[in-house]
Amino acid sequence: MNMAKEMKQYLEYCYYRKELTKNTIKAYKIDLTQYLSYVKEDSMLKSKIEEYITELHKKYKQKTVKRKIASVKAFYGYLEQEERLEGENPFIRIRVKFKEIESLPRIIPRKDIEQLLNHMHQKLTGLPEKSFVYRDLSIVEIFFATGARVYEISNLKKDDIDVESGVIRLMGKGNKERYVQIGNNDALKILQKYFKNNQRSIEKSGFFFVNGVGRRFTEQSIRKMIKKHTKSASISIHITPHMFRHSVATYLLEEGVDIMYIQKILGHSSVKTTQIYLHIALQKQMEILRERYPRDKMKIDSVA
Question: What ranges in 206-298 are assigned the alpha helix state H?
Fold first, then answer.
C-alpha cells in the first residue's frame, strides 16, 4: 500500500468532505508526514508504531504528543472505514494513556490592554487617515471585542463586516458560522475610517484587512503587528492574538455574563471547552476575598 498516496487522498477528504480549515489540514499533513517518514514500510507493524510514540514523548510536550497521535489514529480510522488497510488496524491493539495536566489559559492583564489601546489611539494623532495604524487598531479592537481567532480575522472578507452596525460574521473551525458585534462606538469609528480610506484595495483583494500592496493581511503579519505595538507601548509581557480570546472569555465571566453566551461568542462546539475559564474567574474571586474582604478591616478582639 502506498501510504504517501493514501495520505494525500485522506487530506483531500478532510478538506472537501469534512470541510476542515486549511490550518487543520496543514497540521494533519505535518503530523502524518513526520509519522510516515519514521515508520516507512513498517506502517502496519505495532512495534514500530510503539517505537514512534516513544520518540514523540522524548521530543515534545504531552499536549503536542497527544495531537500527533490523534492525527495518525484518525488517518488509520479513515483507511479502515474505506477498507484500504491490508490487515487489522494496528491502533486497535495500542493503548496510549496520558496524565491529564491542567494548564490554565494565559490572559492579558486589564492594565496592559488599556495601555496598548491608549497607546495606539494616541498614535493616530497627526497621522494621515490612510495610515495603516487604523487597520492595526481595528484588528486589536476586534480581538478584544469578539475573542476571535487570528485566522478568523485574517480571512475576513469584505462582506463579512457591516461597517455601519459593527456586526461581524466569523467562520470558525469546521466552517461553523457565528455573528459577533463591536459594541464600542470609538472602536467602530476607527473601523469605519480604515474601510473608507482603503475601500478600493479591499474590494480588489476581496479581503477586509489588507497589507501595503493590497493583499490579505496574514496571520503571521498580525502577530508581528501586535508584537510591534506592544513593544512600542512599553508593555513587558509577550502578547499573542490568542491571549485576547482568553482575556475576553475571562473578563466577561468576571462581569457576570452567562457561560452559555460566552460559548456562543467564542464559537465553542461544547460548553466544556468554555468551562476552563471558570477556573480563572474563580482565582480572581479568591484574590478579591483575600485582598478586599471586609472582615479583615474590622477590629475584632480574637481569643484564638
Answer: 219-232, 241-254, 259-266, 271-274, 276-292
